[in-house]
Amino acid sequence: MSIATVIAVSCSSHHTLSKPIQESIFLVEGLGVKDDAHCGKTVKHRSRVAQDPNQPNLRQVHLVHTELFDELIDKGFRVSPGQMGENITTRNIDLLSLPKHTILTIGEWAKVQVTGLRNPCTQLDGIQPGLMKAVLDKDKNDELVRKAGIMSVVLTSGQVKAGDQITVEYPNEPFEKLQPV
Description:
Largest sheet: 8 strands, mixed
Number of strands: 13
Order of helices and strands: EEEEHEHEEEHEEEEE
Number of domains: 1
CATH topology: M1 Pyruvate Kinase, Domain 3
Shape: globular
CATH class: Mainly Beta
Distance between the termini: 31 Å
Radius of gyration: 15 Å
Helix content: 10-25%
CATH superfamily: PK beta-barrel domain-like
């Protein structure tokens, strides 16, 4: 069995889609990634701030699985860690199948709770034309599948870096399927 691992960590103090790779990031309980533009108790995503700036920030930490990058190569796309705006790039964990409220312990101390799916936006086409469509799919029931990662909130502060292991703590059943947040 493969061990779930952090491949890269990224952070940007500006509202840009891509985030530069960092040696490490620090997750702050209840806020998000220290020095990241999306850090805060209330929503920081600009389109959501325009709707209601007082809504809680359920998008404090964005995680994307590198298996998506592998899949995109087969479709002719080249995407690297941080490029899709994620804070934590993972390997060997099926992020999209995790139920809502799953707790991920990352490294020694940091804990995040999964809140939902990232809803891909047209900014992805700025990386490569057609990328937004490439991260969308249909399942066997013809329902839309969003593959651009998951969102979470920070439960316990801690430093996160490439090479850190990730452990999964599932919530009590019945599991709640992830929806866009």
